[in-house]
From TrEMBL:
It is found in: Membrane. This is Uncharacterized protein. Keywords: ATP-binding, Magnesium, Metal-binding, Nucleotide-binding, Translocase. The keyword Transcription does not apply. It comes from the Eukaryota. It is a multi-pass membrane protein. Signal peptide: none annotated. InterPro entries: ATPase_P-typ_cyto_dom_N, P-type_TPase_V. GO terms for molecular function: ATP binding; ATPase-coupled monoatomic cation transmembrane transporter activity; metal ion binding; P-type transmembrane transporter activity. It comes from Conidiobolus coronatus (strain ATCC 28846 / CBS 209.66 / NRRL 28638) (Delacroixia coronata).
Amino acid sequence: MSVVVLDPVTKHVDIFVKGSFEKVKVIASSETLPTNYDEAALELASEGCYVLALAHRDLGVIDIEEVKQMKRKELEAEVSNHKSSNILDILTK
């Protein structure tokens, strides 16, 4: 699931993605994934937890009409899974 957030004052656009850790891993930029991404997610899954991952993409200041024309795959391309937006880091502390 993805959501586009527009700041109406600055016209800054952000994309936030939530999904299974496997799906987010496929679309996330590999250099933004934590080194223990699979290990942490699989450990939680083995304990019976449903593991979700979060990712973010900063589109910057962009015309919302241009964003409306973009396909989902294009919006989600190269999202980041930095530690600041990584639910696994919160759960494994």
